[in-house]
Amino acid sequence: MILASDETANALIAGSPDKNITGNFFTSYVDKTIRDTIRERIGHLIRKNKAPEKIITKMLTTPEKWIRGHYFPAGQEKMIIVLEDYTDEYFETKWVEFLAYNDNLTGLPNMFGFEQTLTDSISRTQKSGNFLVMALVDISSVNDFNESFGQKTGDQIILHAAKFLKVFMDTRGFIARWTSDKFILLFPDIAGENHIPALVQGLNSLNNQLFTVDSMKIRIQFTAGYSVFPTDTDDQEELLALSNRALLFAKDNFKNHIFPYKKLPDLIRNNTDIIIRNSLSNAIANGEIYAVFQPKVGTIDFSLRGLESLVRWNHPEMGNIPPSQFIPIAESTGMIIELGNFMMESSFALAREMGNPEIKISVNISQAQFFNENFLDTIDQNLAKYQIQPRQIVLEITESLSMADKKLTVESTHRLREKGFHISIDDFGTGYSSLSQLHNLPVDELKIDISFIRRIHTPDGYQIIHAIASMASAMHLRTVAEGIEDISAVSKLSDLKIDELQGYYFSKPLPRTEILEYITNYQADFFRQEYQKEALVSGSSSAKDE
Length: 546
Prior knowledge:
Elements lengths: L6 H8 L17 H17 L4 E6 L7 E8 L5 E7 L1 H15 L9 H18 L2 E9 L2 H8 L1 H19 L4 E6 L2 E9 L5 H9 L4 E5 L2 E5 L1 E8 L6 H18 L4 E3 L5 H4 L1 H13 L5 E10 L5 E12 L3 E3 L1 H11 L1 H20 L5 E5 L2 H4 L4 H12 L6 E6 H6 L1 H14 L2 E7 L16 E4 L1 H4 L5 H16 L3 E5 L4 H9 L4 E3 L7 E2 H10 L2 H15 L8
Parallel strand pairs: 9-10, 12-14, 14-15, 15-16, 16-17, 17-18, 18-19
Antiparallel strand pairs: 1-2, 2-3, 4-6, 4-9, 5-6, 7-8, 11-12, 11-19, 11-20, 12-13
């Protein structure tokens, strides 16, 4: 029973400072779904006279309110509760958690949210002795609509496609958004392979359905590739790779059709991967692998703050091979360590050549490289060879790496920080479970995942970046946003107090000679003036003075 309360407590508990709650039970104001739990915890604290405890509680007030109570036992079965409004922080935290595992455009699970479903489905399929189908669906012409009519139109096409696919998958299996214009479908526990053609036929019936976007009649058209577990493979990761090969082959040869992996010609199934695998070991020595560098600009004065080093491969026969294609092979073969060391040395060499310690170079560090026993020795050798200061280098590690071996990660990052290196968490926002670990890591900055930055112009995207920026500020961490493509994004991110910006708006990644020329000719005034023009148009709250 409540014996006394002030007006603030009345407002938090009952929704109005004028409501008298004295004489009523505190738990009567608590949401019914957690009322019994709160009653038990309060009773336990009073009976055991335990130390003060924080309890987050949902109240019955309208609109929805969450409070954080600090519970202090006061003897004789009494308790003092100090309350604070936790609503904004609660929803920000929940929003971060939701978007870590769900796509913020369609609301579907993303690949992080889909992983456990896939693991569980494969486990059930193995036990039942049945089959599982994984299909990758590529929505046609989304990029063409983006370029012709803007990203909003492309987003509407994705939303309509997601709606069609979600309805189709409702009783058949699971769906997630794989990448920007691709979805992944999972049909689990299929009793026999003879049932698969009916599923494929049903999925194919969605092709060419009409819908309307901005008064335009558009047909949903897609190409898909699929593989079967365990017929094509009994390995979870390979299942995705095989489905992707089928999709790529279908896009080149059977556009707007659904193609099974098992029908790929034998020579084509593994040809590309074999060429990459066999060529990669000599690519560095042959000068085919090289580094490019993309500028990072400060939001306060648009000064050039840093560069990120990125790997590229120009194969003599296959041409430019995207990193997304050869890095996974480098990781599976162990070549990623040599590749990482090459990029580290290229970055140290450029830092020496620039001769400007105020422009830091960020280097991506792979998990295999970070945990290699020679990693710290390799860094020391490069420092000695190129005679640069550690403070000129930012070492970027991913959230997944920081969670792989927490004890070793903490020890290694502390040693690197003691040397003077800056530590950055790359792709931040895709691994919510590591948030609690940041307090234990000597981290300097968070690099917000590009998938969130691309949604900066949507209310949901803006909100998630705001939440990350707020948490980073509370933890005294710098924030970096990559994937900046227009001045409007610059304006919004500046309002959110993001520290540094990176993207094609400032420059595409440039090879060594071109980046040195870019640094020499860089004009912060140009970007500052463009920002001020945008601020006048949009009413930005943080227009910068000359």
